[in-house]
Amino acid sequence: MDLPHIGRLAAGPRNSIADVAGVTVGHCTLDAGPVQTGVTVVVPHGGNLFTHKLPAAVAVINGFGKSAGLVQLEELGTLETPVALTNVFSVGAVLTAQVRHALQSNPESGRSLPSVNAVVMECNDGYLNDLHAFAVQESHFRQALAAASTEVEQGAVGAGRGMSSFELKGGIGSASRKAVVGAVGEFTVGALVLSNFGKLPDLILDGRPLGRELVGLAAQAAASDAAPEKGSIIMILATDAPLDARQLKRLATRAGAGLARTGSAYGHGSGDIALAFSTAQQIEAGSECVHASLLADHLLDPLFHAAADSVEQAIVNALFAAQTVRGRDGHERASLRDCLAAANLPSSP
Q: 311 vs 258, 303, 316, CA distance in Å?
């Protein structure tokens, strides 16, 4: 089955979050029997984020999650570290690693300077990964950071190694869309998702109820449908459009539109969180007056469409990129491509 292109907007040249200039992504993947996990790092720009912050905002669609750093980000509207992704039990280790990394460039943080607000977000990969092993260490964050580049690997990599989507193999997905905003010009919205949510019967692929087709071929369909959905997704949006924190919160909220199109109802046990940042203007620490040139709110609709489409595309890309993975206690998640091949389903309805 061919990978569909979501929506009418064109993608950037990489069709990833790295189409927003300056943004890079790195992974460290742990693949050792019952340990199927890792760390993914999104780096918003190549400078010192603590001294040259970016406007940012968070939209909590459903708050069943254990992330770090979101309270201050919501209050002040700035991002001052890379965004790190990992599993639910490894937030502490990665948070410590983030702080240590920030201190290397800003040794007075927590002394004569404010303490750094490190952002770490998570999903629960415990079906495939042995969470009790606490396998993720500070060194794995450093490896992911060192690997950051504009070539964004997707699928069962980094933090996405042990993640599941629609009872299939999920993980890291990324996409981008170009949006023409009035007479101002063209801007890019890029998305990266840590996809770990969904029940198979609910899977919708570019408007096609593909999950119902696959469930119809599965003997365990009834039992699967009766179990509660306990997944999560982290959605990161980057844009080069000049937006402030308030506008970025509006942009982050539209990630939920892309998520819903794939079949999510934001279940009780689901942590569905979107973070958006703009690279257009940096905020220098200690500035007494911040001057910003912003798009008018009535021009934002093309960016909203780009956000929804790029998130939906990123979720689809994660499914198509992931390979079948076997992990803890023999648990296995099959890749969507393997399932489609086994079912001999046509590439179109």
A: 5, 12, 9
Concerning whether 272 is annotated as a catalytic residue, the answer is yes
Q: What CATH fold (topology level) applies to the domain 17-286+294-343?
A: L-amino peptidase D-ALA esterase/amidase (3.60.70)
The residue assigned the tokens 């029997």 is 33
| Cβ neighbours of 22 (radius 10 Å) | 15
CA atoms within 13 A on the CB side of 337: 13
Pairwise CA distance, residues 165 & 169, whole Å: 6
Name which of 183, 184, 135 is nearest 161 in CA terms: 135
Say whether 348 is catalytic.
no
Q: Which of 272, 278, 309, 310 is catalytic?
A: 272
Instruction: Select which of 270, 278, 310, 335 is catalytic.
Output: 270
Question: Any catalytic annotation for residue 16?
Answer: no
Q: How far apart are CA 248 and CA 61, in angstroms?
A: 15
Measured distance CA(126)–CA(225) in Å, rounded: 20
The structure tokens listed for 146 are 């060192």
Query: Which residue reads 């019967």 in tokens?
Result: 201
Residue 281 Rama label (left phi>0; alpha psi -120 to 50; beta): beta
Q: Which residue has the tokens 């937030």?
A: 91
Torsion of CA 198, 201, 204, 207, to 10 degrees: -150
Q: Which of the following is catalytic: 176, 232, 264, 310?
A: 232
The tens place of each residue's pLDDT in the chain, 349 residues long, gives 689 999 999 999 999 999 999 999 999 999 999 999 999 999 999 999 999 999 999 999 999 999 999 999 999 999 999 999 999 999 999 999 999 999 999 999 999 999 999 999 999 999 999 999 999 999 999 999 999 999 999 999 999 999 999 999 999 999 999 999 999 999 999 999 999 999 999 999 999 999 999 987 654 444 455 677 778 999 999 999 999 999 999 999 999 999 999 999 999 999 999 999 999 999 999 888 888 899 999 999 999 999 999 999 999 999 999 999 999 999 999 999 999 998 887 545 5
